[in-house]
Amino acid sequence: MYDLGRSRRAVKAFTFDEISIVPSRRTRGIDQVNLAWKIDAVSLDYPLVAAPMDSVMSPETAIAFGQLGGLGVLNLEGLWTRYEDPTPILEELAGLEAGTEATMRMQQVYAEPIKGELIRERMRQIQDAGVPAAGALSPQNTQEFAADVLASNPDFFVIRGLAVSAEHVSDQVEPLNLKEFVHQLDVPVVVGGCANYQTALHLMRSGAAGVLVGFGGASSKANRDILGIEVPMATAIAEVAEARRDYMDESGGRYVHVIADGSMGRSGDIIKALACGADAAMVGTPLARAKEAPGRGWHWGAEAWHETLPRGRRVKIDPVGTLEEVVQGPSHVVDGTMNLVGAIRRAMATTGYTELKEFQRIELRIH
């Protein structure tokens, strides 16, 4: 603890930039590294989840990402569930420069109501392609549209927001009782974000299959500037991993997966997240750089079009390659934004680990 003054104290926390991983006494061949990740009954080739953002995931890219071996999550409050064909809107947004005009236009197009029948249609489209199907709703819309999600028999249901708690108090709306809701479902639920031990423990006790650590959404700087909220991810993941361990003891062995969701801009960030204790990473920005990404060279999260307090900015990004190249290579850049899976595999081989659970015990150092 550090004294901020006579009356306030604060805990020291660390970002990914402040830590590094340390190789062990042996190295491994890349062919010996196993990146397979199993959550609930679904087995994936590697521990990457595509973030539910309109600039990253359309039904088509969710299917393509699933065919490559990952888990794509569709934003069920985005343009794909508000419009029968959002392609013209995405093209229009791609032609707007960042600024007030673009923000106001986004607020207008996202004011169109969410349609339950489109949620069912989009989820069935992914399901019919034979890949794991997952959709995300915010806590505010979960109760209203959950039946539409479940009607398509998804593999996962994601409840994702800036900060998701097991207990929300409000005088204006009937709050979502997360524990009761999760236990009523026959589908595994992933919830978040959270950033500390106590919140994570409460979410795990709700019955969630996975917990998102961090606030994602491509709005970290904006949330810091506008709300004062920021998550040093290395410390947050380590705390939630400790909550997972304690919850396993408390529940008699029930394992809840920890998924890093924030500051996942480069392969090195993903690798450090796994080293800090995450089972997987939810990735947005690198996938938005794929040529197939629906953002067409722009990247934004749900905060960017909030009707009263927009926070996340639309960010201009340059496509670097196809979705397959971004995920599995080959890479043509040297900044960690391509061949994410290859980077994880090489990092584990270089540091002497062959399994993800073993890699969570690697030695870490603070700069």
What would you note in describing this structure?
This protein is an alpha/beta fold. It has one domain: Aldolase class I (TIM Barrel, Alpha-Beta Barrel), CATH 3.20.20.70. The protein is 36% helix and 15% strand. It is built from 14 helices and 16 strands. The chain has an 8-stranded parallel β-barrel, surrounded by 5 helices. It has a two-stranded antiparallel sheet with strand order 1-2. The protein has a two-stranded antiparallel sheet with strand order 3-16. Helix 4 (116-128) crosses helix 5 (139-150), helix 7 packs across helix 9 and helix 10 (267-276) crosses helix 13. It is globular, with a radius of gyration of 20 Å. The chain starts with a strand and ends with a strand.
Descriptors for this entry?
367 residues; alpha/beta; 8-stranded parallel β-barrel; two-stranded antiparallel ribbon; 14 helices
Kindly provide the name of the CATH class.
Alpha Beta
Specify the CATH homologous superfamily. Answer: Aldolase class I
Please tell me the total number of domains.
1
> What shape does the CA trace take?
globular
Quick take:
This protein has 367 residues and is of the alpha/beta class.
Which helices and strands occur, and which strands form pairs?
Elements: E1 2-3, E2 9-10, E3 19-21, E4 37-39, E5 42-44, E6 48-50, H1 59-67, E7 71-75, H2 87-94, H3 100-109, H4 116-128, E8 134-137, H5 139-150, E9 156-160, H6 178-184, E10 189-194, H7 197-205, E11 210-213, H8 220-227, H9 233-251, E12 257-260, H10 267-276, E13 280-283, H11 285-288, E14 298-299, E15 315-316, H12 323-328, H13 340-351, H14 356-359, E16 364-366
Parallel strand pairs: 6-7, 6-13, 7-8, 8-9, 9-10, 10-11, 11-12, 12-13
Antiparallel strand pairs: 1-2, 3-16, 4-5, 14-15
Helix pairs in contact: 1-4, 4-5, 7-9, 10-13
